[in-house]
Design a protein that fits this description.
452 residues, alpha+beta, Rossmann fold, Jelly Rolls, 3 domains
């Protein structure tokens, strides 16, 4: 039979329990905040509601006599999980693409420029057209950036219509003559008799409405530029002689077509025409077939600095590897690693206010026993490129992983419609659009996860 508990005993017991609970909470208020694994325990303050509000405000308010300089820093809290490949930052201070992130915040009133160097994987504006369109849709900008005077892939490009005739083309692949200056793209163009270069807007809306064209050139003697806008009357302008890089700017409210002709001289070197506007994002596609990336070492540092004074790059993207991958390499690509590290460090000194992003090699397929599988060398080269980025302290994006990893190029080729060519190496425009969107997502993810 249960014992009876009188009311006085029950009240006494309740009071003692209350005292013990309050005392325990007061003791817990002396324990600081602590994080254990994925759990974060906040500090308990029983008396917070009893504190004077002005004391709390004083604690929160910064010293008004101190000047606070805004700084872009990575958020410390855990980043949300995403279903795309993100950028790895190998900068010791976590500032691998900080120059670019800071510049994006100013894109509404000034241009933000990206140089995208690569091999045949990006020719025809593949990947870069989609990346440009995505970023311009958010941050503004009109035009495709710097375009060659002459290129064998002109008919393959959709972002701008380009035809040309009668130009002598020099490049880091075709010439070893040190007296021939090569532009930032690795090319230079010498006008011949009856030369022409004609440009019309392409099929991408945000890259159509450019209002400014800048021509970059170098010439030891004066020459004449003949240009026609929208099939109207021809204009003639004398291009001044310039031992260093020079530019001539054409402004117009609505350029639907532009035709250029340069009076031939022995010392005139043209470097390209840039289609742009006053602000927003601009991406210059510097593709070159058969280039491993090491050919960029042939470019004059002085001339590159002159280009940067005109263009002020905030992000340098490097996409190489397809011309390096080999099943016979037994060195682990040590020869390539050392030279590429030297090149990147050299470029970092030439472009001191630009961020650098190295892309891994893409997937490349070979036929083994009747099946298309990833080339064995791709894994070794991809690991080498990640180590290059780490040693250089720059950002890295695993393009192989972004494509879908092992044997992804076969899946791209078999897609309906195809996302890659049947050489199991190069992408179609649709495949480039897909990968460009993924790179845009990775860059935007970095932008959104910085405090400004």
């Amino acid at each position: 039979m249960p014992q009876k508990v009188n009311a006085r005993s029950m009240l006494s017991m309740t009071l003692w329990i209350a005292v013990i609970v309050v005392a325990s909470l007061l003791l817990l208020s002396f324990i600081p905040e602590v994080t254990i694994g994925a759990f974060h325990f906040k500090k308990i303050d029983m008396l917070s509601d009893l504190r004077p509000t002005d004391a709390i405000e004083k604690k929160k308010s910064p010293d008004t006599t101190t000047t606070i300089i805004p700084k872009v820093v990575k958020k410390k809290e855990a980043r949300p999980k995403v279903d795309f490949t993100t950028i790895q930052d190998f900068n010791k201070e976590g500032a691998g693409i900080e120059y670019f992130i800071k510049a994006l915040g100013k894109a509404s009133y000034q241009p933000v420029r990206i140089a995208f160097f690569g091999d045949s994987f990006i020719e025809g504006d593949i990947i870069t057209a989609s990346l440009r369109d995505s970023l311009q849709g958010i941050f503004g900008g009109n035009g495709v950036g710097l375009v060659p005077m002459a290129t064998e892939t002109a008919g393959f490009r959709k972002s701008i219509k380009h035809t040309y005739a009668n130009w002598t083309i020099h490049s880091i692949i075709t010439t070893d003559n040190e007296n021939i200056p090569l532009g930032i793209s690795g090319y230079s163009y010498v006008p011949m008799e009856a030369n022409t270069a004609t440009y019309k807007p392409g099929k991408i809306p945000l890259q159509q409405n450019f209002k400014k064209v800048r021509l970059f050139y170098q010439s030891k003697e004066k020459t004449s530029l003949h240009y026609t806008i929208n099939d109207e009357a021809e204009s003639i302008h004398i291009l001044d002689s310039a031992a260093e890089l020079n530019q001539f700017t054409i402004n117009h409210n609505n350029i639907e077509s532009l035709q250029l002709h340069i009076d031939p001289t022995e010392s005139t070197y043209m470097y390209g025409a840039s289609f742009e506007d006053k602000n927003g994002i601009y991406i210059d596609n510097f593709s070159m077939r058969r280039n491993s990336g090491l050919g960029l070492a042939k470019l004059s540092p002085d001339l590159l600095k002159q280009f940067n004074r005109f263009l002020d790059y905030k992000l340098i993207i490097l996409q190489y590897g397809l011309n390096v991958a080999s099943e016979t390499d037994s060195s682990g690509y040590e020869w390539y690693s050392g030279k590429m590290i030297s090149l990147i460090n050299r470029f970092k000194s030439i472009f001191p206010t630009a961020s650098f992003l190295l892309l891994s090699v893409s997937d490349r397929g070979v036929n083994k026993d009747g099946a298309i599988v990833t080339m064995d060398a791709i894994t070794k080269l991809r690991n080498t490129q990640r180590e290059i980025a780490r040693k250089c302290g720059i950002a890295y994006w695993d393009m192989f992983e972004a494509m879908g990893g092992k044997n992804s190029i076969a899946k791209y080729s078999e897609a309906k419609p195809p996302l890659a060519a049947k050489d199991y190496t190069h992408l179609t425009h649709l495949g480039g659009d897909k990968l460009g969107l993924k790179l845009a997502s990775a860059l935007l993810y970095e932008y959104e996860n910085y405090d400004r």
